[in-house]
C-alpha cells in the first residue's frame, strides 16, 4: 500500500508505504531500495519492531534496516513515512511544466524504468519482485489524478481530494505510474469492453484520436495473437510535455512525449503518423510482453524491447498494409548490423551487475538486433508455429517472470526444432557473420567469418539459417549452416551461367537473416545485373546495397564498386529503398570530402544524378490520392538534394519559404515538405546574411509545441557558418528548448561545423553533465564525436573524456570513437584507391 501527497507548487511530496514481507530465513536485516528520499526514521516499523540501525548507501540506491534481534519468520508488515522532491530530471517522481490560460503550471509525473521507482518510494526495485499495488493519492480537487488502476473511490475535503485506486495484479515496480495535472481526453472501447482513453492538454484532445484508434486496434490484435486477455479494466495513454524517452509502457497508464502520441491533421506529417502508430503498438505490446510476463533480470531486457519492436511491426502491418512496414523494418536490421560490427558492441544478453549499468543497454542491440533475430527465428520456424508457441509462453509465465532460456524452451517444445542451440549463438555472443559465397562448378561454397567494420575478423561462430533465391523467387532454398564452411548445390534453375544474362543467385532472401553476404566477382556481377534488370525484391535491393556499403567501409570491397552498384539504383522509386540509398549517399558525401577533396564535388554530382529523377517525378507539391509512402519519399529526396547542394532544389525551397513567411496557410509548403525548405534556407544563411535564420527563429517561437516546432529546431544548427551554429547550440541552455529536445538540435550539426561544435561541447561540458541526466547526456557524445574522420581527433577526444566519464555513457563514447577510427581507415583506403577518379567520371558521363 502506497500513499503519496504531491505538492505541485513547492515541488515536493510526502508519502508512506506498507509492504508485506515474508521472512523465510533467520535474519536481523531488511535490505531494500531507496534513493534521494528522506525517510522518517522514527516511523519505521517491521510489525512492532523498530530498527536500531538505518543506513543509506547512496551510490547503490540501497537502504539497510538493522534490528536488534532476529526477525520473526513468516509474513510481516514493513511501514515507513518519507519525503522527497519533485525533481526536474524526468526520472523518478518529477514535475513537468505546461501552459494553461497563459500561466505556467506544474504537473507531477513518474518515470521509473529502469531503476527509479526507488526515487519515489522505498521498495524492492527489481523486476522479479512482483507485488500487488494499492495506491492512494492526496491531490488538489480540480486536477486529474491517474494511476495504473481505475479509481475505487474518491473523497473530497474542500480543495483537496483523496483518491483510492483498485488493487493491481502482481507487477514489477518499474511499471508503477502516477500522473497528476489538468487534462482532457477522448475515449474508446475494445471488443472485450476494456475502456481506452487518450489524455492530452486542455484543447488538444482531437489530436489524440489517431492514437486512440491504433490503441484500441492493438489491444484487440494482441489479445488474439497471444490468446490472452488484457487483464486490467482500463488503459490510459497520456501525453507529457517533458519526457525523457519516447514513451513508457506503465501497466494500464502508458506515458508518451507529446510528439509520440499526438497527431494533428493540419500540422503533422505522414512520417509522424507512422511513428505514432508504431509507438502506440510498441507500448501496448509491452502490456503482454513485459508487463504480464516480465524479464527475470535486466540481462533479459531484450526480451521486452526486441519483442515489442518486432510485434509492433506485425500489428502496424495489419492495420496499414499499404505502408509496407516490413520493408521499412530493414531500417532496424541495418541499424543493428552497423552497431554490432563494432568491437565495442555487446551481446544481446548482457551481464548487469549494478543499477547504473541498466540505462545504457536500451540501445540498438536490445531493440533492433533483438527484433531482427526474432524475425529470423520466426521466418525459420514459420509464422503459425511461432505464434502458437508465443501464446503458450504467455500463459505459462503470466503474472510472473521469465529468462531468455525459458522462451527457447517453450519454442523448442512446441516446434521440435533446436531453438536453444540456434538462438544462443545469436544472443550470447556479440557480432554476426559475413557469409563468403563463391561459385565452384554446380556448387556455391559458403564460409562464415565474424564481420567487423575495422577490417579485422573476429573468432565468433554462428548457426546461420541460410536462404537463397536462385534466378527467381519461387525457387528458394533453406538450410542451416552449422560449420565454418559448407556448400550448397545449385541447379539449372538459377539461370544459364554460360549464356550470361539470366543467371543470378542471392543469399539471405529478404534480409530475414542477421548476417551479411560477400559474393565472388561472378556472383556479384550476376546480382548487379539482376538489380538493373529489376529482378530483385525491395528488401533484397536494400540488403544488397547495405552489405556492399559495409564491406566497402571495412575495405573488403572497393569504394568504386560501391559507387558502381549505387549507380544501378538510379530511377528507383520506392521509399524504403531510397531511404537506405540516402543513408549511404550521405555517408559517402561526408567521407569523400575528407578523403578526396578534389573529387568530392564530382562525387556529389554523381549522387545527385542517382536521386534526381525520382525527386523530379514527385516534385514539391502533393498529388491527390498519392500513397503514404510517396508522401514520405518527397521530403526524403528534397532534403537529400538540398544537403548535396543541388542549386535548383535549394532555390525552389527558398522561394516557397519566402511565400510561407508571408502566408502561413499557403498550400505551397504543407507540413511534409517544410523541413526541406527550412534546410534550403539554412544553406544561404551566415552571420552577415541572417534574415532567413531570423525568420526561422520567429517561426519557432510562434509555432505550437509539438512537431511543428521541432521541424524548425532540427535544422537550426545545419549550417556552415560558425557564428550561427554556436548561436543555435546555445539555445540548448535557454528555456526556449526543453531538455528533452536538445538532441534534435544536435542531430542537425553538419560535418563542416564539427570543430566549432566540439569546442562548444568541451567548453560547456560541466554545465551539460549537470543539466542532462541518464540517456540524454549520451546524445551529446553520439551526435558530435562521429562527425570526425581522423585518428588524431579520436585521440584528442579520448583524452578529453579520460577524466570525465560516467558509467552511463562509457560504452557510447567507446563506440563513437571506434566509428571515428573506422571512418579514418575508410578515408585512407579511398585516398589510395587507384582508378577511382576514372570510375566517377565514367559514371557521370553515362547517359
Ligand atoms: N520501455 C521503453 C521506455 C524506456 C526507454 C524506459 C529507455 C527506460 C529507458 C519503451 O517501451 C520504449 O521502448 N520506448 C521507445 C519507443 C518505441 C516505439 C521504440 C522510446 O522511448 O524511444
Ligand atoms: Zn519498449
UniProtKB/TrEMBL annotation:
Keywords: Aminopeptidase, Endoplasmic reticulum, Hydrolase, Metal-binding, Metalloprotease, Microsome, Protease, Zinc
Binding annotation for Zn(2+): 282, 286, 305
GO molecular function, one term: metalloaminopeptidase activity
Chief subcellular location: membrane
Membrane topology type: Peripheral membrane protein
Domain Peptidase M1 membrane alanine aminopeptidase: 210-426
Entry-linked CDD domains: M1_APN-Q_like
Domain of life, source organism: Eukaryota
Listed EC numbers: 3.4.11.-
Entry's cofactor comment: Binds 1 zinc ion per subunit.
Localization annotation: Microsome membrane
GO annotation, biological process: peptide catabolic process; proteolysis
Class in the EC hierarchy, top level: hydrolase
The ERAP1-like C-terminal domain, residue ranges: 504-821
Active site: 283
GO cellular component: cytoplasm; extracellular space; membrane
KW Transcription regulation (keyword) present: no
Record-annotated site: Transition state stabilizer: 367
Family assignment from sequence similarity: Belongs to the peptidase M1 family.
Protein name: Aminopeptidase
Origin species: Aegilops tauschii subsp. strangulata (Goatgrass)
